Amino acid sequence: MSLFKSLDSAFIDGEWIKSSDTSIFPVFNPASLESITQVPNCTKNDAIKAIESAKIAFRNHAKTSAFERSNWLMQWYTAIEDNKAALAELVTQESGKPLAEAIAEVQYAASFFQWFAESIKRPQGEIISPSTTNKRLMTIKQPIGVVAGITPWNFPIAMLAKKVAPAIAAGCSFVLKPAAETPLSALALAKLSKQTDLPKGLFNVVTSTHSADIGDVFTTHEFIKKITFTGSTEVGKKLLAQSADTIKSTSMELGGNAPFIIFDDADLDTAVDGLMVSKFRNSGQTCVCANRVFVHNALMEDFLQKLTDKVNLLSVGNGLDEGSTIGPLINQNGFDKVATLVQAAIEQGATCLVGGKPHNKGGTYFEPTILTGVTDSMAITQTEIFGPVVPVLSFTDETDVIARANDTPYGLAAYFFSQNLNRVFRVSEQLKAGIIGINEGMISHANVPFGGVKASGIGREGADVGLEAYLETKSLCIGNVA
Ligand code: SIN
Predict the structure, then answer these.
(1) DSSP string covering 88-113, please?
(2) Annotated catalytic, 287?
């Protein structure tokens, strides 16, 4: 852990800096609610300084080769892998998630560095068949410019990896504002960048609680050519509106309300295992968590028994304690939201089969919960819960359940379980979501496009399309070729 012991400064132009008004803010461990450390509470001026440094770095390194950038990313990847245990401990300390999940997150983060280090070496651009014999047509790809990123607390290292790695691969420079709840993983990544040949100024980290102010600078500054954001739909809409004046490219990974459908021809054990992963990863605090679980009537009794057996095996506790599988919720607001949604559902007629209340460990721990008799109109099925709660709804008809699954403004992830090949294609094509898990609860990979439709966002991260998001396509039209 020593490498990451004193993460108490922001990172601008390759230097560790204090905020321009010298203010600081504490970072809390959600497991103990104690302060871990304090970091600079950067101001608008600090954000501007970071953008200016990123602009100079972008200009200075405009002519680097793809192979050179690939090397930086591979060095970064190796540094992350070499420090995996310490990074995972840091992720658990600031986010509360169980250590095993933090290790998986660090590996997931590293995989973006590796993937984009490799993919930038592949051909970019294309040769186009000319429409007349005296022309030659082609496209080339160029970096978009200075990128600003705003990342959430639920995956403090992976969410920034999926933005920073492709941006650097493409030849962009990056200014990051990590969530105020979890700035340390971003600073650790900055520290590891010092072990690579990455030139100064290409990666900057601005820590701050002044989210609106920093967002304002990012969306209005003329040097910023792209905004990439993961977070709530509400904030995403604001950033989009603010970015309009300077016509910025945007990638928005926003909220979800994932349906999880278990058809009568599903393998029930596989479905319950998939649900445990999809629902309880990070205590239910992921944008792709199963939020509404539709179970065919014929399977309901067996399903509830199998699910109850598994949920009773979950162990709530400090993520650093061996055996803990469910950590605390991130903060009091997150806890209050979950408690209120569960209480309201019970008052409106839902039955609590397991859990349903704050855990006796206190703090922001909430009991893993199963609610039955839930309906489509309850707040719990219309809101992204972000907690360890399974709301169970029943259905009998395929057409009807697809309509209900799609009846939400959101469209990030959707899951269904069926052994019928025709149904697999039929349902996949009809569900309105960007990512579909079929007989699978774990859907996130660096080499698979990740993103949503409708109010869940714009653009995709990961895979080739995730690199494309940081490149401009330029068409070359060569005429009068003899
Ligand atoms: C998210 O919750 O925003 C992303 C989760 C993931 O990448 O698996």
Answers:
(1) HHHHHHHH---HHHHHHHHHHHHHHH
(2) yes
Place of tokens 């994932």: 258
pLDDT computed for residue 2 by the predictor: 66
Reported pTM: 0.97
What is the distance, to the nearest Å, from the Cα of residue 146 to the centroid of all Cα atoms in its chain? Answer: 21
477 is catalytic: no
Q: Measuring CA to CA, which residue among 325, 306, 366, 365 is closest to residue 342? A: 366
Strands 34-40 and 203-205: unpaired
Residues 6+ apart with CB under 8 A from 212: none
- Structure confidence by residue, pLDDT tens digits, 265-288: 999 999 999 999 999 999 999 999
Q: How far is 424 from 345, CA to CA, in rounded Å?
A: 32
52, 253, 367, 384: the active-site residue:
253
Cβ atoms < 10 Å from Cβ of 18:
16
DSSP single-letter state for residue 199? P
Rg (alpha carbons) of the chain, rounded to whole number = 23
DSSP state of 367: -
Q: What strand order describes the sheet that includes 457-458?
A: 15-17, 10-12, 203-205, 173-177, 146-150, 224-230, 249-253, 457-458
DSSP string for residues in 68-95 = HHHHHHHHHHHHHHHTHHHHHHHHHHHH
Q: Which amino acid is at 120?
A: I
Taking only the tens place, the pLDDT of each residue in 386-403 is 999 999 999 999 999 999
* Ligand 1 pocket list (CB less than 6 A): 154-155, 230, 253, 286-288, 444
Residue 470's pLDDT is: 98
Cα 167–Cα 172–Cα 151 angle in degrees, nearest 5: 45
Q: Count other Cβ atoms within 10 Å, centred on residue 65.
A: 11
Average pLDDT over residues 240-248: 98
- Site to substitute for ligand 1 among 91, 111, 154, 228, most atoms within 8 A of C-beta: 154
